[in-house]
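Known limitations

C-alpha cells in this collection are predictions and should be treated as such. Users comparing against experimental data should check residue numbering before alignment. To illustrate the layout, the record for FAD assembly factor SdhE is reproduced below. The input appears on top and the generated C-alpha cells appear beneath it.
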Amino acid sequence: MVEDRETRKKRLAMRSMRRGMKEMDILLIRYSEAKLAGMDDAALDTYEALLGENDQDLYQWISGQRPAPAAHQALVEDIREVASGAG
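Generated C-alpha cells:
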C-alpha cells in the first residue's frame, strides 16, 4: 500500500514529537510545524532518514557538540536555524 503525502507528513510530525527525549521532542516538533508542509518528496525522504537516527546523536549534532554526518549536515543546520528563531 502506498502512503499519500498528507498521511506521510502527519506520520513524520508524530515521529517528531514522540522521540523519547524531551529536548528532541521540542526541537523537532517546532521544526516539523515550520517546515513539513512545504517539503517536497526528496526533503521528506531526507527528514525521515534523520528521524531514524538515535536521539542522543541527533541532540549532539543539533546542539553542536559533535558534527553531523555529511548526509544530515544541511538538515541539521536548518533545524538549528528554526530552533534559534532565524528560520
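For this record: The first helix runs from residue 5 to 17. The chain has one domain: 5-84. Please report discrepancies through the issue tracker.
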